[in-house]
UniProtKB/TrEMBL annotation:
Signal peptide: none annotated. It comes from Thermoactinomyces mirandus. This is CRISPR system Cms protein Csm2. This subunit may be involved in monitoring complementarity of crRNA and target RNA. GO terms for molecular function: RNA binding.
Length: 153
């Protein structure tokens, strides 16, 4: 995918998330995916799958039970690449991260945090109306001049 991407894993020697994973790598991934036409809808669809795994992991304490769910991300993304729903580089992103995330509960959480940062750095490529991805009713509400918190002008 990219030279040196994830070569240091998600964590530093003290067990803290590496800054590169949270900021630089996440920005680089988001820009690359945007450049090749990855829509925010497709990105969020896969993020929701990862979030579902995280939820299952909080319920099921045995990592071996959720590891197949992590591994299953690879064939799901491959299928969507073949259908030309998502770009090849997203498949590379998922494969590289699954290789790390499947090692342990902690590594999966590192992947989850990294993916969350990629989402945060991604532009909303599906919103053709403008307004930063807000719904039309939300945009109309903002234009009305009402205070969101208290419903007053």
């Amino acid at each position: 995918m990219w030279q040196g991407y994830l070569s240091g894993g998600y964590y530093d020697e003290k067990g803290n998330m590496r800054r590169e994973i949270i900021v630089e790598d996440a920005q680089r991934v988001a820009k690359e995916l945007e450049k090749v036409g990855m829509t925010s809808t497709s990105l969020r669809r896969f993020y929701n799958k990862v979030m579902a795994i995280k939820t299952k992991m909080s319920i099921e304490k045995d990592f071996e039970v959720v590891r197949p769910m992590i591994d299953k991300l690879v064939p799901i993304v491959s299928y969507n690449v073949k259908r030309k729903v998502i770009p090849d580089s997203f498949e590379s992103f998922i494969k590289a991260n699954v290789a790390h995330a499947r090692k342990s509960h902690t590594d999966f959480l590192g992947f989850f945090e990294h993916f969350q940062c990629v989402i945060a750095f991604s532009k909303n490529t599906d919103d053709h109306r403008g307004g930063g991805g807000r719904s039309r009713s939300s945009q109309n509400y903002r234009k009305s001049g009402k205070n969101h918190q208290f419903g007053r002008k």
